[in-house]
Amino acid sequence: MFKPEEMAKIEVISLGRYKDRVLTYLHEEGVVEVREVEVKLAQKDVPNEFYRKAASYSIGISRLVDFLRAHKKESGGGLREFFFPPEKKKKTYRYRGIEQLIKDVEAFLEKVEPEIKAVEGKLNATQTEMERIRASIAILELLSVLNIEVEYLKSTDMLEIVVGTVDKDKHAPLLEDLKRTVGEKFVGISKELKDRYLVLFVFLRKDYEKANPVLAKHSLERLEIPEGKGTPEELAAEYRKKLREKEAELEKARKEAEWLSEQYYEDVIFYHELMENERDKATILSSLARTNMTFALTGWLPKEKVPDVVGGIRRITENKAYISIRDPEPGELDEIPIKLKNPKFIEPFEMLTEMFGVPKYNEFDPTPIMAFTYSFFFGFMLTDFMYGLIIGIVAALLIKGHKHLRDGTWKFANILLFSSFFTMLLGILFGSYFGNALDLAGIHVPRLLDTMKGALTVLEIALAIGLIHMFIGYTIGFMVKLRNGETKEALLEQLSWMLIIIAVVLFVISKDYPGLALAAKGLFGAGFVLFVFSELKNGGLAALLIISDFFGFVGNWLSYARLMALALATAGIAMVVNILVQMVWGIRIGAVPIGIVLGIPLFIGGQFFSTAINSLGAFVHSLRLHYVEFFGTFYSGEGKRFEPFRAKREISKLELEFEA
Amino acid sequence: MDPIVYVSLGAALAAGIAGAASSFGVGIAGAAAAGAVAEDEKNFKNALILEGLPMTQSIYGLITLFLILMVSGILGGGFKFSDPNNMTNIVKSAILLGAGLTVGLTGLSAIPQGIIASAGIGAVAKNPKTFTQGIIFAAMAETMAIFGLVGALIMIVTGVGF
Predict the structure, then answer these.
(1) Do A22 and A89 share a structural domain?
(2) CB 3.0 to 4.6 Å from A438: which of A138, A172, A443, B110, for a disulfide?
(3) Residue at A29 is within a domain
(4) Which of A303, A338, A373 is the endpoint of a domain?
């Protein structure tokens, strides 16, 4: 807690024939972040033939996955799935090395791929065919105004027949142009359609060469005459029949695809995951160094995992490995990956810290403080027992449902659960249950303070909280900098503000104890002088920065007023809903209490809307108060996150043969 | 002017300007949201939340409207400041006008917030991980509206009182 997990640097050199084993072992363990080996003598490793195959199969299988997923029968979904996503079963694969795995995948693909491709091809072909038939039907429908049997619209040895459509304003010029070029030796029929003309021309074959450019010039769109005999209507009916046949075929092919999906989907995504992981493993190879017989890798891992990993590597290399473990050196501060370490119950809040950026190795991890202040601010901005209860119930359901996944939703729900506790607590203190609903109903609720009537007191509380919050931040920064030997920065950048904050507090208290006024002035002066000194390094800009940074501090402090504003906004929206409900409540038509019928849905809908919009506001602004105001006092967030070399195993599990 | 003119102007400007600004903001963000959803339907939830952010200004306006109506007695009971010859009535109702105007004008921050949100929606469509950052960026613009609400509340509570 408060400090990132202690890390150690590991260096391994072993024989080349153990490379695949060591990599697979580390990949499955997922506790080492592999870094590039910087040795000038040795060359970099490159993926071998099997890894390249794995990459190409991974892409190939992902196409099969897409096809099968598209034809998968939908199951579940909706709200239930959201709250309680089903647990995925993990299939075990016995891993004997990448060569064997590639062989297994090839064997699987040999069996499955042709089957899937055949159905996919059939589906595509049928769909293309149906498109063609539909296009033919559309043309036949156009031709039906001509009422000429279709076979007569085909060109012959002597005659060239052109059927097409042309824009209305180009119709007359086209006819004139044609007359000019080929004279009277052609027949033209025109029919007016909605916005175009349907035209039919019959040319002598020898004239056609002259006529063709004219047709193109007036942008005649040719229609391809469908094959067949009879009038357009008769033929269209025939084509429609064909279309229905094709539809049945398509349906059959879809069924087949569905069957395939049912049969193979699980296997295909299983092999896909295996291949993806091999591909991922291959990306690390370029960080390794190798000679003809050996390979070397280096990386970082949490100190507590060292015995496991060292033991593991020794075991699988049959003790033919050189392993070096050492503590980080001061020069490596910027390189050490950061893994946050906190007690279980505040671990979910690491998500919020990580979103901003993790601390450097010698810096402070603010997660434990944030866990408390974040939830408290959230509660303060929502301040309603019932809203807290609703959020708490939703969060508890999500935590239960996502327990096995431990995903983002699970962490988020944990944060919400903490926050809902403060929301309920503060809701009781402020006597707020769906806003002032109980008061309107005539039930007296005990409360320490009314958000609306005591708005100014709430504002004072909010600003006091702000001062405390920022003071904590500056104090942490002060202590961390002292520990890291940056005494000057600690004094100028943190202590200055600490003194100013203490001075502000003393100044407020001095209203009751006048003796403190002098101390307040003294401390303020001292703090301000330190602050001015801290700005002097900026040279000519110092004067400007002194003004802007000082008011920046004041602005940051006043920014905590949003605690009060959002608390009041919650009370306000709830009140608006309650007043609206109260207005309709009494309406009656005869003996029918129509007001109650309207009022209850209005109340439920309105309060749910209020819960949603206000908790969104509380979530966002509580986060902002931490990222902008709180972190601004001491936190850089410039550390590098620990990203271990780790296999993604959602549906597969490896059983390593060399481990057995 | 009669006190009722001040009071009703205050209420109307608070909810009116802030509401209009919110609708501009939501409009800007909504156009981006429609695009993001066309790209991938999975963006719907994230885009919807971002699109909703510029809506808060109208809520602040609405709250101010109700507060003004409540403290002036229009809501519940009768209008308290109806006598135009009493100077206190004029002062109090003018303060209410000022409070309403503060919330209304700072509510204009909904428009730039909509612009930020729309950029955030575009970013989320490309990379869903930027969602929270997008929200924070948009929330920055809301600060001014919150300050406006705080100022207006101080004016209402200290200047008029319940």
Answers:
(1) yes
(2) A443
(3) yes
(4) A338
Instruction: Return averaged pLDDT per consecutive 10 residues of chain B, 162 residues in all.
Output: 90 95 94 90 83 87 87 82 87 93 95 95 89 85 88 88 74
**For residues A634-646, average pLDDT:** 88
Please indicate, yes or no, whether residues A528 and A577 belong to a single structural domain of this protein.
yes
Nearest residue in chain B measured CA to CA from A572: B63
Judge if A218 and A261 occupy the same domain. no
Please tell me which of the candidates A569, A579, A616 has its beta carbon nearest to residue B60.
A569
Residue A330 and residue A205 share a domain: no
Residues in B touching A624 (Cβ below 8 Å)? 136, 139-140
Token reading at A326 = 């050492």
A101-127 pLDDT, tens digit per residue, is 889 989 988 988 888 899 999 999 999
Mean pLDDT check: name the lowest of A363-367, A521-525, A584-588: A584-588
Q: What element of type H or E holds A114?
A: helix A98-143
Residue ending a domain, among A338, A372, A392, is A338
- Can you give the residue range of the structural domain that contains A202? 155-224
With respect to residue A657, please indicate whether it lies within any of the assigned structural domains: no
Q: Classify burial at A63, counting beta carbons within 10 Å of its beta carbon; exposed 0-12, middle 13-18, buried 19 or more.
A: middle
Q: Are residues A432 and A369 in the same domain?
A: yes
Q: For residues A198 and A191, is the Cβ–Cβ distance under 8 A?
A: yes
Counting the structural domains of chain A, the total is 3
CATH of the domain at A218: 3.30.70.2750
* pLDDT tens-digit map of A174-221: 888 888 888 878 888 888 888 888 888 888 888 888 888 888 888 888
Same domain, A537 and A483: yes
User: Which is more confident, A586 or A242?
Assistant: A242
The reply to whether the predicted model has a pTM over 0.95 is no
**DSSP for A358-401?**
PPPTTS---HHHHHHHHHHHHHHHH--HHHHHHHHHHHHHHHHH
Q: What's the confidence (pLDDT) of residue B8?
A: 93
Same domain? A285 vs A378: no
Any chain A CB within 8 A of the CB of B12? no
User: What integer pLDDT is reported at residue A447 of this predicted model?
Assistant: 86
ipTM of the prediction:
0.75
In this structure, is residue A522 part of a structural domain? Answer: yes
- B56 contacts in chain A (CB < 8 Å): 569, 613, 617
Phi, psi of A289 (to 5 degrees): -105, 155
Q: Is A330 inside any structural domain?
A: yes
Same domain, A429 and A571: yes
Would you state the structure tokens that stand for residue A628, as one six-digit string?
């902008």
Q: Name, in order, each residue with C-beta under 8 angstroms of A477's C-beta and a sequence gap of 6 or more.
A: A364, A490, A493, A494, A633, A634, A635
Q: Which among B63, B136, B154 has CB closest to A627?
A: B136
